[in-house]
Design brief:
Nuclear Transport Factor 2, Chain: A; single chain; 5 strands
Length: about 140
């Protein structure tokens, strides 16, 4: 439980940049969380397959605008988010809504058994979930 609190506290700090105006607290059900995990999994699959265009298509319009094209986006992922590409094991943790920001943690275990948590933020655009950011954070959990 202590590790979960640390993750949520870190997620809250990381998410401040993407804060949603007050009163916009989303109410998410099981179907929403399943769809959120699905879009993250689909992007991970595309990233690992080297399918730049498909991976880029799961990003929010803000992220797409920031990078401009799929090639630039993929270069950033390879440079700053290589643990996403290299993980030998991934596991979705319980998602949360923190100050209006939807955060879906994903535990990553690297080939050397280093454990990280990818804190994804997502948003719904025209009825579809899109990835609005990702922060990598160390985990207090040790891999076996």
């Amino acid at each position: 439980m202590r590790g979960r609190r640390r993750i949520l506290a870190l997620a809250a700090l990381c998410a401040m940049a993407w804060a949603v105006p007050c009163g916009a607290e989303p109410k998410l059900g099981r179907t929403d969380w399943t769809a959120i995990k699905k879009v993250i999994r689909q992007q991970l699959d595309a990233l690992r397959a080297g399918d730049d265009e498909r991976a880029f298509s799961y990003a929010s319009p803000g992220i797409q605008g920031q990078f401009g094209d799929a090639h630039a986006f993929m270069n950033m992922v390879r440079t700053r988010y290589s643990p996403l590409l290299d993980a030998r094991y991934t596991e979705f943790l319980e998602g949360a809504v923190i100050d209006g920001v939807i955060v879906q943690p994903l535990r990553l275990i690297a080939p050397d058994n280093t454990v990280l948590v990818a804190l994804y933020t997502v948003e719904r655009r025209q009825g579809a979930w899109r990835i609005n950011g990702c922060q990598l954070a160390p985990s207090t959990v040790k891999a076996a």
